[in-house]
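The freezer alarm interrupted the setup, so I double-checked each line after restarting. Inputs confirmed:
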Amino acid sequence: MKDVRVRFAPSPTGALHIGGVRTALYNYLLARQTGGTMILRIEDTDQTRYVPGAEEYIVRSLAWVGITIDEGVGVGGPHAPYRQSERKEIYAKYAKQLIDNGHAYYAFDTEDELEQMRERLKAAGVDQQQYNSITRMQMRNSLTLSEQEVKTLMEAGTPYVIRLKVPRKEEVRLNDLIRGWVMVHSSQIDDKVLMKSDGMPTYHLANVVDDYLMKITHVIRGEEWLPSAPLHVLLYKFLDWEEVMPQFAHLPLLLKPSGDGKLSKRDADQMGFPIFPLDWNDPTTNEKAVGYRESGYLPDALVNFLAFLGWNPGTTQEIFSMDELIKAFSIERIGKAGARFDIQKAQWFNQQYLKSKSNEELAIYLIDILNAAGVDCSQEKAIKISSIMKDRITFPKDMWEQAKFLFFTPTTFDQSVADKKWNADAVTVISAYRDSLSKLAHFDANIAKETLETVTASVGIGAGKILQALRLSITGAGAGPDLMMVMEIIGQQEVVKRLDFALQTLKVKVA
RNA sequence: GGUCCGUUCGUCUAGGGGUUAGGACACCAGAUUUUCAUUCUGGUAACACGGGUUCGAUUCCCGUACGGACUACCA
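Predicted 3D structure, all chains:
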């Protein structure tokens, strides 16, 4: 195989969608596996949809998930510029070439005229209302107008577009890497606009020209492009680039959790999960969206999850680092059917990745979170907290949110637990335990435990019977991480203080 | 409507002419845990339908149904 060159080519119309991240990932995996080149190209040919900050957002998002770019916007390269708006003249040149070769033509039809044509066809019961080999002969273009008329119109500054002259009868074939041969009859393809009246190319022309000039070998993109792929094949042919045409791989779509339709921001909002990799403030609507990063997803976990949405290695291994993905990836093993987006699976991956981290690593996350919450914490203490919370969390922030009692003395107690477990025995043991603890010269989890055993033995009440009451008095809740470690983290004095408080507050019909 | 693509447990999927149709998530149950969580064990659960081809189809072929994408001077 020639040197693989792939590209990710988003348009900067907003934040990068999670589906786009997956597309970028598959491109990246193929590039890295083959020692090829990963290119980032920005498809900003629609000036009306340009959103400030979107391009930068895309670059930052890719960097966050660990997709590095070899060539393109932000890094440069031999085929610069990589922003299509800066390549206007290039497309114009090839459009002109197509016209000279009789494969394209100028069209002067106004929006109203196009609308009228569609209405007319619809009224006549024609299946497809398109600008094609038949209808173009009834429109105002350089095929129906005389050379002189065309010249006059253009000199008068009449707006015009350039359209592809799609042949009337031709079988267009394309061998998709994922779907096999796809055949479409040219009569089904309309005379797509190649150059818009503002002098910018449309996606179709720009993408073919750039892929050719940038020597792209594999076009890996979403399935929504499949219907227009035959058009692109036609373009390669008319430009005489057929032999170097890239291979196509149209990825199955990421579907809503309900399964009906492409995953959209709306669905994500409704179901309460992120759709963008990073936080995004839309400058046009002023809407704020929370990203995967800010929600507490680890980039490795997100990547692992995304990679498995539409692809699998054929083994039972589920956890893959980026390097392992690079080794295992293959286009052949990409599925054909759309994959529903299941956020629960993403959470499971996140949990797995979190669990595989060392306490020291987790402590770093925790300290960040605590700082943001304005809470002080030593590294030593953060490491201990990480160790007891590690197996109970899905997101780093859980270490804080589920363990606030480590920092604040509880002021209330879970009533249902109190009702069930706070009884005379509990009061007896806890009172005695409080007294023993207060006299200790040294204190840690082990000592706390030994002391409890001694106390329960001496009063003849099983530790199991009162442990939940003890937990309640220390944490305010009936469930939580290892209680002895909790006591060690809180410290002797604080524990005694809390026991006093609980004994006073929960005082029960002890007698 | 037209064109194209698709269809294995609820979800992601493996598999493939003869299998107890495998795994993972989720769910349920049991064990461990002083609790919850983790972990372990077990369980419920799938080849859309109809024809063909075949000794035999979930697997191959053809239809049907259903779903999706596309159908702009948007990408």
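Quick read of the result. Residues 276 and 482 of chain A are 36 Å apart (CA to CA).
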